[in-house]
Amino acid sequence: MSTPAPDRAEPDAALLLDSLPVPLLEVGAGNVVLAVNMAAEEFFGMSRQQIKAGGMAEIAPPDHPIYLLLTHLRQRGGSVTEHDLLFSSPRFHHEGVSVQGAEVLDHPGHLLLTFHLPSTARVLDQQQVYRSAARSVSGMAAMLAHEVRNPLSGIKGAAQLLEQAVSDADRDLATLICDEVDRIDALVERMGMFGEARMDYRALNIHRLLEHVKLLAGNGFAKGLRIIECYDPSLPHVWGDRDRLVQVLLNLVKNAAEACRKPVRRGTSRS
């Protein structure tokens, strides 16, 4: 028979308190400080022995609002939070501090105080704001995606009809419309998913992508400009996402086309 493993020793309470990154004090009757963690030593610039020896008088003067918080806890129990408090002495100076107090259930009359700098509270508030904004933007993106995809279906259907009716010379343009509608539809779908899109990696013929981009540019922003092709026919297939590669190449060609159309200032030469 196997011998059961011995129970692991429970961690010491003082070690648990010292592991907390938040300054913490345990206060007893007469505002005596019973326990101080390491973060509180750094926060108040004193050792725990000094804080315990002086009690709450080492932390705050007699008219400080923190004593109202302690009185409220002793009378009503539960937990209370006070915001925007000032703690200042020759050893420390903290403004806008939030103090949260709670009673220790197993020890009547004992209270726990935690001290939070404004940056911590601000981060929590910002996180809540960001979550709310993300939900709003996500809902708006889904709505826009739905509204945009409906007319895209009609555009593609019309382009497919034209593809069958037009001459061979214009059929490439009808095919181009269908391909671009599919690409826009994929972009809209990613927008509706709001950041949850996955890359669709596959082996791609880079020459076909370049021909597609050239056709788009020649019938759009680069109309009237001459695009010179200089491809290496031995290039192997590339591994990537087609729609994103098309977008990158389109951006590069568009930048080049806009640069070519910029007027040349007098006294300067174009290289």
Helix content: 40-55%
- Report the principal-axis shape: elongated
Largest sheet: 5 strands, antiparallel
Kindly, what is the distance between the CA atoms of the first and last residues, rounded to a whole number of angstroms? 87 Å
Strand order of the largest sheet: 2-1-5-4-3
CATH top level of the largest domain is Alpha Beta
Number of domains: 3
**CATH fold descriptor of the largest domain:** Beta-Lactamase
CATH architecture of the largest domain: 2-Layer Sandwich
Count of runs of 4 or more consecutive helical residues: 8
Query: Which residues form runs of ≥5 with pLDDT under 50?
Result: none
What structural class should be given to the helix and strand makeup? alpha+beta
Keywords:
two-stranded antiparallel ribbon; 271 residues; 3 domains; elongated; Beta-Lactamase
Plain-language structure description:
- It contains eight helices and seven strands; from the N terminus they run αββαααβββααβαβα.
- The chain has 271 residues and is an alpha+beta fold.
- It folds into three domains: 19-116, Beta-Lactamase, CATH 3.30.450; 137-198; 199-263, 2-Layer Sandwich (Heat Shock Protein 90).
- It has a five-stranded antiparallel β-sheet with strand order 2-1-5-4-3. It has a two-stranded antiparallel ribbon with strand order 6-7.
- It is elongated.
